[in-house]
């Protein structure tokens, strides 16, 4: 029985312990990404979000890029733990989704609608966030565990070179995913009365 959207959203959690197994085919993963990119809304229908799906060797290549970049700035004695975290939390997964925003689209909207030009970068990030949540919920709904990482801008240039991506694609986040191991930690919620106000 399929879960409702509200139930799927409620079950979404951050998983740091994942394996390189998949409960669905690669084609079905591609369908999740394609459906999200096509149907998630965006300000002014800008459709500025760009997504790169990395599987297999490409997934491993990304996390090697991350480790190489971090090795240049993290002290040697601390890098051991950094490498262990990446190897056992992210690189060991089945794949990674990269989220980008096309700055050509953003700048084009700024020029076309100058009265809103200061808002478009923020609206672009909101669009990206909606794509991130949609893909995250849908991946978890089919049995994956995922987390959201931000190694940008440290890895931006090398990522663009590695997969020949346009310069105007701005990396926002990385989402490693795989079959979850165990259960995620309990999530504590702040009181709703402190976060929501309703007026009638």
From TrEMBL:
Q: Say which domain of life the source belongs to.
A: Bacteria
Q: Please state every residue range assigned to the domain named Nitroreductase.
A: 9-178
SUPFAM superfamilies, alphabetized:
FMN-dependent nitroreductase-like
Q: Which residues form a coiled coil?
A: none
Entry-linked Gene3D superfamilies: NADH Oxidase (3.40.109.10)
Q: Which InterPro entries match?
A: Frm2/Hbn1, Nitroreductase, Nitroreductase-like
User: What is the protein named?
Assistant: Nitroreductase family protein
- Provenance organism: Bacteroides vicugnae
Instruction: Recall the taxonomic lineage recorded for the source organism.
Output: Bacteria, Pseudomonadati, Bacteroidota, Bacteroidia, Bacteroidales
């Amino acid at each position: 029985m399929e879960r409702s959207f509200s139930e799927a959203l409620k079950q979404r959690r951050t998983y740091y312990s994942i394996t390189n197994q998949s409960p669905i085919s690669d084609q079905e993963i591609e369908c999740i990404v394609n459906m999200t990119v096509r149907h998630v809304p965006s300000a002014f229908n800008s459709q500025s979000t760009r997504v790169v799906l990395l599987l297999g060797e490409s997934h491993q290549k990304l996390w090697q890029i991350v480790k190489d970049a971090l090795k240049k700035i993290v002290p040697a004695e601390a890098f051991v733990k950094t490498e262990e975290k990446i190897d056992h939390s992210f690189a060991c997964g089945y794949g990674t989704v990269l989220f980008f925003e096309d700055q050509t689209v953003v700048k084009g909207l700024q020029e076309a609608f100058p009265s809103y030009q200061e808002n478009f970068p923020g609206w672009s990030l909101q669009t990206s966030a909606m794509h991130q949540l949609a893909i995250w919920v849908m991946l978890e709904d089919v049995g994956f565990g995922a987390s959201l990482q931000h190694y940008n801008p440290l890895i931006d240039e090398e990522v663009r070179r590695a997969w020949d991506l346009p310069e105007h694609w701005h990396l926002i986040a990385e989402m490693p995913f795989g079959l979850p191991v165990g259960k995620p930690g309990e999530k504590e919620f702040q009181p709703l009365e402190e976060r929501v106000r309703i007026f009638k």
